Every structure is written in C-alpha cells, then in structure tokens.
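Dear support,

I submitted the protein below through the web form. The confirmation email said the job was done, but the results page showed an empty box. After a refresh the structure appeared. I'm attaching both so you can tell me whether what I see now is the final result or a partial one.
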Amino acid sequence: MASPVSTAALAWLGRSAMRAVGGVGALALVAGRTAWGLRRLERRELARGLVQFGYESLPLATATAALAGVIVVVQAVLYIQRFGARAFLGWAAGYGVLWEFGPLLLGLIMSARIGARNAAELATLKVGGQIEGLRGIGLDPFALLVAPRVVAMEVSMLALSTFTFLVAILCEAVAAKLTLDLPVRVFFGTFADLLSPSDILGGVLKTGAFGLAISLVSTAVGLRAKGGARAVGEAAASAVVLGCAAIFLLDFLLTTVLSRWLS
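What the results page shows now:
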C-alpha cells in the first residue's frame, strides 16, 4: 500500500506534467494562429508595437549593454593579468558579449519590460471580454492583436541586438584602455583577427530565438488569464518567470547546437 507521502508526490508530478503539456499546447496554438494571422497583419498595431518594444526600450538596452561591456572587461582583467594574455583581451571580451552576455542580458531585460507588459495588456482584454467581443463580430484577435506584437518583438530584438552589441564592444575597448592601458588598435586587432562572422551570427540567432520565445510565452499567458484584476497581475508575473526560464533553456540548447554548427 502506497504511503500518503508517495501518493501526494505522484499527484504533484501528475499535475505538473499536465500543466507542462497544457503549456506546450498553448504555445503551439498561439504560434500556429499567429502564423495564420500574418496574412492579415494589422499595420497600425505593428507600428505601435515597434515603438513600444523597440524605440522605447533603446535607453534601457543601451545602458545595460554599456554596463555589461565594462563588467566583462573588469572580470576578464583578473585572468588576463594572471596568465599574461593581455593581447587577447579584445577576442575574449568580444566573444563573451557576442555569444553569451549580449543576447542573454538583452533577452532578460526585454522579458521583464516587454513580456510583462504584453501579457498584462492581453490579460486585461481577455478578462474584460474584448477578445470575445472581437470574435463575436467576426474579427480574428490573432491577426489584430497577437501577430503584430510577435512581429514587432522579433524585429525590435534583432535591431536592438545589433545596436547593443556595438555599444558593448565600444565600452569594452574604453574599459580596456582605462584598466589595462591596452591600446584601442590592439583591442580591435585581436577582435578582428580571432573572431569570425559566424560568432556574430550566433549571437544574432540567439537573440532572435529569445525574442520569439518572449512574445509567444507572454501572449499565451495573457490569453489564458481568467478572473478579475488579480489575473492581470498574475499573468504579468508568470510571463516574466516563464519567459526567463525559456531564455535560459534556449540558451543552453542553442549554445550546444550552434557552437558545433558554426565552428
């Protein structure tokens, strides 16, 4: 006869498995309906999304990129001085930003800022009955509200990644000059000699995948909201937590796959 503890554990595992299956099904449904809705994309909603997701995120993304670049150099200096590899700082710092810190930090701040906002807005429309109202008059909410947000998030992430990578690398060069008195030409010399276009492509692909994950997760969470105002807050919090979890999982998978494919 199973003990009460074993029974409770099995019940918890069963509920967790059912929630995981339900979550994957919701993501697949949102992805499929969004792809179908791209044919009738609402352009005004797309323009609004590009402003909110991309333009208004520019100051925060720039500040984060600048700080990330300086922090990478400060951390790398400890090992550079210990092993006498001063000339390789440009390669090490550039590789760290392009492959790991740049996409990861940009994904996390966009999940917190945009994912939560997207989920809260859609949850408000869902609990307020506007989503059902659109269906009632024959309009597709995915074409009007969801597909433009997904496209805007993806375009914004790719545009921001290019700009923030540039800012981070420039800040790295300045930090290397100030901390190690490393000439800028030496920094960019090893950067250009040892890094390849595939390193840049890997970072851009990661950023694009993170953007798609944030938009789909936040949309699915927002559209599943039920109840009143409390559901809106819960949707925003869940979008941040699940979005960050998806980013770390994708980071592990993409680093493993892309490092072999692009090498």
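Response: this is the final, complete result; the empty box was a page-load delay. The two ends are 55 Å apart (CA to CA).
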